[in-house]
Amino acid sequence: MENNSQQSKLGESHGRYAIILSVLALIFVFVPHLAFKIAYIVLAVLAIILGAIGLSKAKKANVSTGLAKIGLGLGTGLIFIPLILYFSVFFAAKTDYVKNKASESRREAIRADIKRHRDSVIKSEKISKDTTQVKDLK
Fold it and tell me: What is the 3-state secondary structure (H, E, C) of 59-107?
């Protein structure tokens, strides 16, 4: 009986430690210094590891796995949420760049059309002027 109680406390304690490390990692996310970013990643990975260990020990002892699941989920979320945000910003910036390039190419195409139209109008005015001069000569 003592062994089962010891394992349940061990599984729950790993879950608690995983939650604590996840909260610390969450705090470090908002500090812009590189050392804190490295500490954030290390803490999030440790939270995942402790959450997985706590989940395993809690399942073996047939006790509540809630704390371990929360710690594991927080650690995993802390790893993936900044990556998702980074790629969202990256692709949004890339999309804006592509839109700007597309609109530039459209503007250039419109300018080229206007220039061709202006040149054709100038040519037609010149032709009509030449034809009136020829008619005046006859």
Answer: HHCCCCCHHHHHHHHHHHHHHHHHHHHHHHHHHHHHHHHHHHHHHHHHH
Structure-block tokens of residue 34: 């590189």
Q: For every one of its 138 residues, what pLDDT tens digit does the chain have, with 9 covering 90 and above?
A: 455 555 557 778 888 999 999 999 888 888 878 888 888 889 999 999 999 998 888 888 888 888 889 889 999 988 887 777 777 777 777 666 666 666 777 777 778 888 887 888 777 777 777 777 767 766
Chain mean position to CA 131: 66
Cβ–Cβ under 8 Å, residues 17 and 39:
no
Cβ atoms of residues 28 and 43 within 8 Å: yes
